[in-house]
UniProtKB/TrEMBL annotation:
Pfam families: FBA_1. Residues 10-245 form the F-box associated beta-propeller type domain. InterPro entries: F-box-assoc_dom_typ1 (IPR006527), F-box-assoc_interact_dom (IPR017451), SCF_F-box_component (IPR050796). It comes from Solanum tuberosum. PANTHER family: BNACNNG10540D PROTEIN, F-BOX PROTEIN CPR30-LIKE. This is F-box associated beta-propeller type 1 domain-containing protein. It comes from the Eukaryota.
Length: 255
């Protein structure tokens, strides 16, 4: 969980299965942050250790990254060898796959896309070739995980409210999975279904393969009528895990 309290960025880990909450103290002062910081969470499948990745750019356009290990309760700070990009595109749900997290980045030109990935095992960043603008339009909205593959949600300008989903076969090779029309705000993705928010704040799932919609039946008085827009509500990918996020010493302190 990431948010602002008294204009300061706060971060905490929450495991609903074990009912644990662990506040994380950021290793780099918030005052040095120039662009909005990026936080992601994933599992190191080799060590079976949950980790938090936090990177940002300071006022000198220098990249800093920090990796937090739940098992060691430590932050590792380093400067990754990645180029400066002006925009980290939105991720719909999660872009974590098999121990690696992916981001879609863009530079000063809309056609200048690249894929940045982070390996949770080696704790290394790597830059790979992004989608070529010859085959994919330049209005890419962000990454998502579709049927255990990394995919791009792209705005199709040929049809009103139309989108394309392109699946990465290998670095630099993308195949179009589907083109579909959608009149609701896309919030997240789960397997082959998109999670949408209607104008009256009702969550709906839409299967892009079968073209079927299903109301999820969730209603809450706290949802505002503008929940379809950014900031109105959020939908998050959750996979139950019984791995503890606190060390035994932390549990003793709680008592």
């Amino acid at each position: 969980m990431v948010g602002e309290i008294d204009r300061e960025v706060s971060c905490a880990l929450w495991n609903p299965a074990t009912r644990e909450v662990k506040p994380l103290h950021l290793p780099i002062p918030v005052a040095t942050i120039h662009d909005s910081p990026v936080f992601v969470f994933g599992l190191d499948p080799l060590a079976y250790d949950y980790k938090v990745v936090y990177f940002h750019i300071n006022n000198l356009c220098e990249h800093y990254a920090s990796v937090y290990s739940c098992s060691r309760d430590l932050w590792r700070i380093f400067k990754p060898k990645i180029l400066y990009f002006t925009d980290v595109k939105h991720t719909f749900g999660t872009a974590y796959l098999n121990g690696t997290y992916y981001w879609l980045l863009t530079g000063g030109r809309h056609s200048n896309y690249t894929i940045l990935l982070f390996d949770f095992g080696s704790e290394m960043f790597k830059e790979i070739e992004g989608p070529g603008h010859q085959s994919i339009d330049t209005n890419m909205l962000g990454l998502m995980s579709v049927d255990s593959s990394i995919a791009i949600l792209n705005l199709n300008l040929c049809t009103v409210f139309a989108y394309d989903i392109w699946v990465m076969i290998q670095p630099g090779v993308w195949n179009k999975l589907v083109t579909f029309q959608c009149f609701f705000r896309i919030k997240s993705c789960y397997d082959s279904s998109l999670i949408l928010a209607t104008k009256d704040s009702q969550p709906v799932s839409y299967d892009v393969r079968t073209n079927k919609k299903r109301h999820l039946g969730f209603q809450h008085p706290g949802l505002r009528k503008d929940a379809e827009y950014d900031g109105g509500c959020g939908v998050f990918y959750y996979k139950e895990s019984l791995v503890k996020i606190k060390r035994r010493e932390d549990e003793d302190l709680d008592h």
